Amino acid sequence: MKIAVLSRNESLYSTSRLLEAIEKRGHEGMVIDHLKCDIVMDEEGPSLYYGGKNLKHLDAVIPRIGASVTFYGAAVVRQFEMMNIFSAVDSMAITRSRDKLRSLQILSRAGVNMPKTAFTNNSKDENKVLKHIGPAPVIIKLLEGTQGLGVILAESNKAAKSVMEAFESLKTRVIIQEFIEEAGGADIRAFVVNGEIVGAMKRQGQEGEFRSNLHRGGEAKLLKLSRAEKSTALNAAKAMGLAVAGVDMLQSNKGPLVLEVNSSPGLEGIEKATGIDIADKIVQYVESGAQKNKKPRKKIHA
To answer: What is the domain-level CATH number for residue 146?
Structure first.
């Protein structure tokens, strides 16, 4: 098979590990910078060009789409889908997962447990918004934040109002979320591939830090999930339509609470914490998906 990893940097850990796994399993692998792809549409059908070459001979792609280029990256993945080339991650699911508000709405509709969250168009009435969540401390998140950036802990209602007023003055949208104190600055990431959890880790933030992201200096270790945590992670990935996902959860007195479902989860932290070859698990899924994809399908309607 010819399998391409859609990535802007082939030296990144996740990209290089996927390429290694592709070749180890006897396939031809390549890295394609999705931002350098040309999307072409005419009466002969959809096509994609990279470096002047048509990509119609690919069997499958594994998207590694960064948050800052979601629009074009998802468009490239969608074009591959239109060309009947299998994608490890659905283009619509990528778009859903990158919209924090939409993601939470979908998870709420699916009955997935999460911290209580509020969003309003009238941020000037801070008292009204805060009443939906309860007394401080509360978490205030930018809708566009990633890797722990744009996440603020407001320890009092007065502090929360000040932060919300500041963002309102910048015309920046935020969501307000209850603070789960018993989580102790730690969270769980469950890595899901094709409806199965292939690895899980617990990430602990530095002392005095409520964010556990590894990019913020957090540490990770292997974790055996409880039955409730497994069920919650699988339900969240399914609700988002993601066959490959990193589901981030908090351990709370109410059980596991989903924070986010990541459509392009990094492999470095989870592989080093668990010792599991996650890249190989993804490539195995791509093999089976590409084989099934070769069968005639109904036309895709955008």
So the answer is: 3.30.1490.20
Q: What is the pLDDT of residues 232-249, one digit of tens each?
A: 999 999 999 999 999 999
Same domain for 223 and 149: no
Strand ordering across the sheet containing 2-6: 28-32, 2-6, 60-63, 86-87
Query: 232 lies in a domain?
Result: yes
Q: Are residues 123 and 136 located together in one domain of the fold?
A: yes
DSSP per-residue codes, 166-233: HHHHTT--EEEEE--GGGTTEEEEEEEETTEEEEEEEEEPPTT-S---GGGT-EEEE-PPPHHHHHHH
Chain centre to alpha carbon of residue 75: 17
- Domain co-membership, 188 together with 237: yes
- Vertex 198: Cα angle to 149 and 148 (nearest 5): 5
Q: Within this chain, do residues 252 and 188 fall inside the same structural domain, yes or no?
A: yes
pLDDT value, residue 115 = 94
Residue 52 belongs to some domain of the structure? yes
Asked whether the predicted pLDDT for residue 26 surpasses 60, the reply is yes
The answer to which of 29-33, 131-135, 189-193, 247-251 has the lowest mean pLDDT is 131-135
Please, are residues 190 and 229 in contact by the beta-carbon 8 Å criterion? yes
HSE, CB side, 13 Å, CA atoms: give it for residue 232.
27
CATH code: domain of residue 220: 3.30.470.20
pLDDT in tens, 127-152: 777 888 878 899 988 876 555 567 88
Cα 202 from Cα 190, distance rounded (Å):
9
- Which residues are paired to 267 by β-bridges? none
Q: Which residue do the tokens 């992670």 mark?
A: 233
Most confident option among 128-137, 156-165, 196-205, 282-291? 282-291
Total residues found in the chain within this entry: 302
Cα dihedral sign for 84, 85, 89, 92? negative
Count of domains for the chain: 3
- Residue 21 domain boundaries: 2-89
